[in-house]
Amino acid sequence: MSSQTSVDELEPGQIVGSPDAGPSRRAKRQRRKERTTAQYVAAMQLDNEIMATEDAQADLDAAAEEDRIASESFRNACEEQTREAEYERVGKEIREEMRQGQYSVAEKLLHMFTGMNNIKLHVIRDEDRQDYIQALKALETKRRQPLSSKDPEFPITQTLPIFQPGFHICVHEKTMNILLECRITPWGEMNMKERESKLRAIHTIMAYTQSANGIKTNGTPHQSQRFQDHAKKSDHNVNRPKPHGNMFAGGWHRTKGERGVHLSRYTVDKSGGSETRQKKIDIYSETSEDFSHVAEEYSEGLRRMYPLGYNLLKQHAEMYDVPSFDQLEMVTLHGKPIVNAFANSITITNDDFANYQHMDRDAIAIAYGWWWIGWQDPRTKTWHVKDEYDHDKVQGGEFLVAEHGVMIDFSRARGLVEIFWRGNSDHHGTMSSMSSEGVTRFGTSIQVTADAVAGMAAWKDDGYNPAKIVGNASRLEFARQSMERAKSKKRS
Q: Which residue range or ranges hold the Tet-like 2OG-Fe(II) oxygenase domain (predicted)?
């Protein structure tokens, strides 16, 4: 290979083959500089690319870390929610077990205190049932008759049925106030003495209904107004609600049909011929005399089921000198009445009695009653209690306390059913029923009525004038005089 420099490599002014021919130092330095610059630029570009790659990777790593943190936070939150839900579930179970444990202890204490078996506490939740009550009233108005548990629109799933034998106590969830009590005792589970004593009272009551004048209102005054309001809205003519079944009453009430009388005994039925009317007068007299035993049984029943309720009713009657329904006459001593204070009224229903949801006009929120099945002898037309005729012979007729969504399902109960309820503060009513031939469900209640309290106050203001009171003897005498007048009128 020649060592001579090519023409292209000569600097200006150089001659080929001369000693000065070949690259100059400056050219070499320039070329080195250019190469160094190019390398530097390339290196810088490479560095920039590397940095860009590293930045991109860092961004990816940061995004991945954010995703990881977010995912972990979400997972932790889910786990926390799961733990909280589990804690809440376990807490509810523990609280429920504690409540059940408390109820179990309470049931045992009640058993020890009352001597009653099969005590069951029903905790009524603290909730507003106005929508439930209004729906029931709307259904009554729509059907134009009392409620039926067979109605497809009746909220059966929202209603607690009670029918098993034993002592049932409904208490408020928060206050633990007693709202309703029910004692169901099959006849075969009573001891002989208790059964005989209760049956004596029951037969007195059933016989009394065959002599007493019926009550026509049937607990429907408020429903009449509801029907009228509905008629105005719908442009329909709606008559007064039809009574369903029979209602009777014994004891004292404030007289509205007898001018100038403040308080009187309920009247004898005046229907029928002379022989029938005389028989009714005799039955009225005999059964009224035995009301003392009825009052004793009801007094003992309420006192055993609800001692506080008994005391409150008794004290209220004493405060206003309200006479018990078994006190046949009102007499005064030294200008003041001698009063055996207790519930002034006993109401009795039968013949598929039913009424609408309502509140009573009682002076105190204590009402107590019995329910049982009676069989009528087709020959004598008298009522009896027989083992083969029980509540399953009458379908429906539940006692519904809408205020608390509880109903006593009589058709599935057995024997004697006793109920305490707050008549003047809780909506309640008897639902429609259908009885088998020859049987009926009797229902009763005792209470201190507001009318009796007002009547006694009016009598006091009138100086306890004996002419302003109609006792049992006067009531019987009036019935005899009415019968004689009817005889005379018939003869003439």
A: 222-433
Structural domain count of the chain: 2
Question: CA–CA separation, 337 vs 349, rounded Å?
Answer: 31
- R_g (Cα) of the chain, nearest Å: 46
Q: Are 411 and 430 part of one and the same domain? A: yes
Q: Which two tokens stand for residue 211?
A: 């002599």
The token pair at 144 is 């134009």
**12 SS3 class:** coil
Last residue of one domain, picked from the residues 58, 84, 115: 115
Rounded Cα–Cα distance for residues 71 and 332 (Å): 90
pLDDT in tens, 351-407: 999 999 999 999 999 999 999 999 999 999 999 999 999 999 999 999 999 999 999
Q: Of 115, 132, 166, which residue sits at a domain end?
A: 115
Give me 422's structure tokens. 């707050």
Same domain, 109 and 123: no
Residue 219: which of 240, 189, 190, 196 has the closest Cα?
240
Burial 343-374 (b: 16+ CB within 10 A, else e): bbbbbbbbebbbbbbbbbebbbbbbbbbbbbb
Query: Helix, strand or coil for residue 372?
Result: strand
For β-strands 263-265 and 160-162, DSSP reports them as unpaired
What confidence score (pLDDT) does residue 375 get? 98
- For residue 309, the enclosing domain spans 119-491
Question: Is the same domain home to 102 and 222?
Answer: no
Separate counts of helices (H) and strands (E) for the chain: 9, 19
3-state class percentages of the chain: helix first, strand second, coil last, to nearest 5: 45, 20, 30
Pairing of strands 416-421, 367-376: antiparallel
For 411, the token pair is 């058709």
Residue 370 shares a structural domain with residue 420: yes
For residues 487 and 492, what is the distance between their CA atoms, to the nearest angstrom? Answer: 9
Interatomic CA distance for residues 42 and 32, integer angstroms: 15
Shared-domain flag, residues 357 and 314 = yes
- CA distance linking residue 456 with residue 92, whole number of Å: 54
Residues 77 and 62 in one domain: yes
pLDDT digits (tens, 9 = 90+) for 146-172: 999 999 999 999 999 999 999 999 999
- Note whether 90 and 225 are same-domain residues: no
pTM above 0.85, yes or no: no
Same domain for 123 and 90? no
How many residues are listed for the chain in this entry?
A: 492
